[in-house]
Write a structure and sequence with these properties.
446 residues, alpha/beta, Aspartate Aminotransferase, domain 2, 3 domains, seven-stranded mixed β-sheet, 35% helix, 15% strand
């Protein structure tokens, strides 16, 4: 068997330069179970990234694996022909909705990624409204296909692409600790929401009536940014008043990760369109879907299709995965373990810790230079490397990649939390510079 070093070298020599995770997490996987990964060199890692949030049930949940194996002997691929597996999957999706939305929504199964579902949602809204413009938000991430990149705010992935979808306008998001308008709560009066309200109502705003407003209710890749309830309710109401479909991107935050089925439930709003993927595949099988108000269903046959929209294995995995979440009370577990993680991270004593943000098991630990307040990118990379060396997998995100992001499986235990907190504390201490000024301030090496 090839060693870990050999596998990493072979990948670097033969695969695309676009590969990302092996650069920061130089790991070759031999096997995985639950919240643990074992490398080909025999090292054990606690997985607190879970496939960028895909593996809500951890690796290879036995009940889901068994159901997928059984389906293999029945039927695997069926385009969008009705099957018992598909019918049960659609029923499970609709049953997730809060009672006021049940009976008012349609399902469109996409494939194979969240990016495709974003494309589908935008296409649906444009077709239903007859409009073209889209309002997205600063700090957003919605995928890597051309349309999804067009509504993603990260300049790094946009500036070298040409011919992106026109008519996209980025509005400030309620990132209150780094307010894009330079204001402070509560005296700000949620000015970011006011700006959006004005954009939609002012005849001289320069923004034509849009086809959709697209929002992550918790920004994931943007650094686990949790907006204020007032910001969300006012933006949603502004969209409603302007007749603009409100699209909730729940690809990462949805399906139990925040302690509820959907992140939008924390804000007591009702979206017009809900975009799902990641955890929807049960054990990581590729599938995506949009749920939307039936009045928007003006598509003609074949308007949005895809060869793999009939993946029976993913549908079975998704349905059984949702059953497991209910049976094992993983929403409550996500809320409880998440609260423990946030509490433990806030107890860290380091001048580089700027802010801890979290809801359920979607958590960000932001680092900043203690002297300037600038994002401490190099420090964050040292912390991630220190966590990896000690057997914990996590990733970076947010502005300048200065936020350590934790997206563990929803099945983690208190013992897992304690282990992760110990490792993170050790990694933070090891990453700190050792010299102090006379005033006792750390010489910053961000």
């Amino acid at each position: 068997m090839l060693t870990e070093s050999e596998l990493l070298s072979r990948q670097a020599a033969r695969e695309s330069n676009a590969r990302t995770y092996p650069r920061g997490l130089p790991l070759a996987v031999a096997s995985a179970r639950g919240a643990e990964i074992h490398s080909v060199d025999g090292r054990r890692y606690l997985d607190f990234f879970a496939g960028a949030g895909v593996l809500a049930l951890g690796h290879n949940h036995p009940k889901v694996v068994e159901a997928v194996k059984a389906q293999l002997d029945v039927f695997v691929h069926g385009l969008d022909l009705p099957t018992p597996a598909r019918d049960a999957f659609v029923t499970a999706l609709l049953d997730l909705l809060p009672p006021p939305l049940r009976g008012r929504m349609r399902v469109h199964v996409c494939a194979p990624t969240g990016s495709d579902a974003i494309e589908a949602a935008l296409k649906l809204c444009k077709r239903a409204t007859g409009r073209d413009a889209v309002i997205a938000f600063q700090g957003s991430y919605h995928g890597m296909t051309t349309g999804a990149v067009s509504v993603t705010s990260l300049i790094e992935v946009r500036e070298k692409l040409h011919g992106l979808m026109p008519g996209v306008h980025f509005s400030p998001y309620a990132y209150c600790s780094r307010c894009p308008l330079g204001l402070e709560r509560p005296s700000c009066g949620t000015a970011c929401a006011r700006l959006l309200e004005t954009t939609l109502t002012d005849t001289h705003s320069g923004v034509v009536p849009p086809a959709a407003m697209l929002m992550e209710l918790v920004q994931g890749e943007g650094g686990t940014i949790i907006p204020t309830p007032e910001f969300v309710t006012r933006t949603r109401e502004a969209a409603r008043a302007a007749g603009v479909p409100f699209v909730a991107d729940e690809i990462q935050a949805g399906l139990g990760r925040t302690g509820r089925w959907f992140a939008f439930e924390h804000f007591a709003i009702e979206p017009d369109v809900i975009v799902l993927s990641k955890a929807l595949g049960g054990i990581g099988l590729p599938i995506a879907a949009i749920l939307y108000r039936q009045e928007l269903d003006v598509w003609e046959p074949g308007t949005h299709i895809g060869t793999f929209r009939g993946n029976q294995l993913a549908m079975v995995a998704g349905r059984v995965g949702l059953e497991v979440m209910r049976e094992e009370g993983l929403h409550d577990n996500a809320a409880e373990r998440g609260a423990e993680l946030v509490s433990g991270l806030r107890a860290l004593r380091s001048p580089f810790v700027r802010e801890v943000r979290g809801v359920g098991l979607m958590i960000g630990l932001e680092f900043a230079d203690p002297e300037t307040g600038a994002p401490a990118t190099a420090f964050a990379k040292r912390v991630r490397a220190g966590c990896f060396e000690r057997g914990l997998l996590c990733e970076l995100g947010g502005r300048a990649d200065a936020t350590l992001r934790l997206l563990p499986p929803l099945i983690i235990t208190r013992a897992h939390v304690e282990e992760a907190l110990r490792i993170i504390a050790e990694a933070v201490r090891a990453a700190e510079p050792k010299t102090l000024t006379r005033e006792g301030v750390v010489h910053a090496t961000p």
